UniProtKB/TrEMBL annotation:
<dbReference type="GO" id="GO:0008836">
    <property type="term" value="F:diaminopimelate decarboxylase activity"/>
</dbReference>
<dbReference type="InterPro" id="IPR022643">
    <property type="entry name" value="De-COase2_C"/>
</dbReference>
<comment type="subunit">
    <text>Homodimer.</text>
</comment>
<dbReference type="InterPro" id="IPR000183">
    <property type="entry name" value="Orn/DAP/Arg_de-COase"/>
</dbReference>
<comment type="pathway">
    <text>Amino-acid biosynthesis; L-lysine biosynthesis via DAP pathway; L-lysine from DL-2,6-diaminopimelate: step 1/1.</text>
</comment>
<dbReference type="Pfam" id="PF02784">
    <property type="entry name" value="Orn_Arg_deC_N"/>
</dbReference>
<keyword id="KW-0028">Amino-acid biosynthesis</keyword>
<feature type="binding site">
    <location>
        <position position="362"/>
    </location>
    <ligand>
        <name>substrate</name>
    </ligand>
</feature>
<feature type="binding site">
    <location>
        <position position="304"/>
    </location>
    <ligand>
        <name>substrate</name>
    </ligand>
</feature>
<keyword id="KW-0456">Lyase</keyword>
<dbReference type="InterPro" id="IPR002986">
    <property type="entry name" value="DAP_deCOOHase_LysA"/>
</dbReference>
<feature type="binding site">
    <location>
        <position position="227"/>
    </location>
    <ligand>
        <name>pyridoxal 5'-phosphate</name>
    </ligand>
</feature>
<feature type="modified residue" description="N6-(pyridoxal phosphate)lysine">
    <location>
        <position position="48"/>
    </location>
</feature>
<feature type="domain" description="Orn/DAP/Arg decarboxylase 2 N-terminal">
    <location>
        <begin position="41"/>
        <end position="271"/>
    </location>
</feature>
<dbReference type="InterPro" id="IPR029066">
    <property type="entry name" value="PLP-binding_barrel"/>
</dbReference>
<feature type="active site" description="Proton donor">
    <location>
        <position position="333"/>
    </location>
</feature>
<comment type="similarity">
    <text>Belongs to the Orn/Lys/Arg decarboxylase class-II family. LysA subfamily.</text>
</comment>
Length: 384
């Protein structure tokens, strides 16, 4: 039984719900700010990981910028008090209204992924009498060695500009008078735990920086994206990511010139471990060879196991009996609505409270109302 979870209080709260450990979020943000601050690195929080306003308020208080991938996220960031001067806007398919929103709010930078996008941004900026600051998202063709759904830096991905197209892109920039090139941007994927992938990224970034230097482009911003993973297997052993090693890789691997800044866009590493999905057992069903713990949370509340076959540690905080194996499944009318197969849990009964760990990133924010289910509500440790 985990003392960090207030079981008596949980018994009183309607499930399913997300529970956020705000003290752990503070510890994570303190570590992140300290380690990035050693080198003067600039960190933008990737709001797609978790857009809860209470979480965003906490992050804003630590002085982080914001990485957005939609106009709706830009609106949320501004509504939550983030300064437009700290907002960067990425995404392979920016709509006209989203570009206009960014320009109207004078955001820091558009991370641009194609020549057609550059041309449209230039056209819209010209119609408003504005100059759009942009960074070119370049595909470094570095394999992040993660799930293929969340690998984004390979040449066959839909994201970014391939290196062999750079000459064509910079030539087009000469004719786009309402565009200002501020830097280059990279992002190779998500849930990366092998630091060698980031070392490989540094090598490729350095090569591309040299390519621009040789052509006399003065790049102010080198944005290496994010991707740092968390420990889903052992969340208690490693509740805060190893930001020290992560940032040191980039300090050692990228040599900045005068006036250049190194930017990061971290999401999962910031919020992943502070969130848990809390659910209640509805039934224990005996199958032919399998015992099912059927819970009231479903893939509508946490889709990662169904979408990515992702692992989340599951705990029964109501029982201390001997352990047995269960398939933990939800109530949705889909066979993929499963949180874990052959999960070792203390003997489990109807009404027991289960906690699905490491759900602070890509959990609540990806919830849906399939089967007309309501969105899960949220409980915060400092407000229980």
């Amino acid at each position: 039984m985990q003392s960090r979870f207030p079981l008596p209080k949980f018994r009183e709260i309607k499930t399913p719900f997300y529970y956020y450990d705000m003290e752990l979020l503070d510890r994570t943000l303190e570590s992140l700010s300290r380690e990035a601050g050693k080198y003067g690195f600039v960190v933008h929080y990737a709001v797609k990981a978790n857009a809860n306003p209470v979480i965003l308020e906490k992050i804003r208080n630590y002085g982080l910028g914001i990485d957005c991938v939609s106009g709706y996220e830009i609106r949320r960031a501004i509504d939550c008090g983030f300064k437009p001067s700290g907002i960067v806007f990425a995404g392979v398919g920016k709509s006209d209204w989203e570009i206009e929103l960014g320009l109207d709010n004078d955001i820091a930078c558009f991370n641009v992924e194609s020549i057609p996008e550059l041309e449209i941004i230039n056209q819209i900026a010209a119609s408003k009498g504005k100059t759009a600051r942009v960074a070119l998202r370049v595909n470094p063709n570095v394999n992040a060695r993660t799930h293929h759904y969340i690998t984004t830096g390979l040449k066959e991905n839909k994201f970014g500009i391939n290196q062999w197209d750079l000459e064509k892109v910079v030539t087009s920039l000469e004719t786009l008078t309402n565009i200002k090139l501020e830097g280059i941007h990279f992002h190779i994927g998500s849930q990366i735990t092998d630091m060698q992938s980031f070392r490989n990224l540094c090598n490729r970034v350095s090569e591309i920086m040299d390519w621009f230097t040789q052509r006399r482009y003065n790049l102010r911003i080198i944005n290496v994206g994010g991707g740092l993973g968390i420990d889903y297997q052992y969340p208690d052993a490693n509740p805060v990511p190893d930001f020290e090693s992560y940032f040191k890789v980039f300090r050692d691997g990228i040599k900045l010139g005068e006036g250049q800044e190194l930017h990061f866009e971290l999401g999962r590493a910031v919020v992943g471990q502070c969130g848990s999905l809390v659910t209640r057992v509805l039934y224990v069903k005996e199958g032919v060879k399998t015992r099912f713990a059927i819970v009231d949370a479903g893939m509508t509340d946490l889709i990662r196991p169904a979408l990515y076959q992702a692992y989340h540690k599951i705990e029964n905080i109501s029982s201390s009996a001997a352990e047995e194996k269960y398939d933990v499944v939800g109530p949705i009318c889909e066979s993929s609505d499963s949180f874990g197969k052959a999960v070792s849990l203390p003997e489990t009964s109807r009404g027991d409270v289960l906690v699905i760990r490491s759900a602070g990133a890509y959990g609540e924010v990806m919830a849906s109302q399939y089967n007309l289910r309501p969105l899960p509500h949220c409980v915060f440790s400092d407000r229980v």
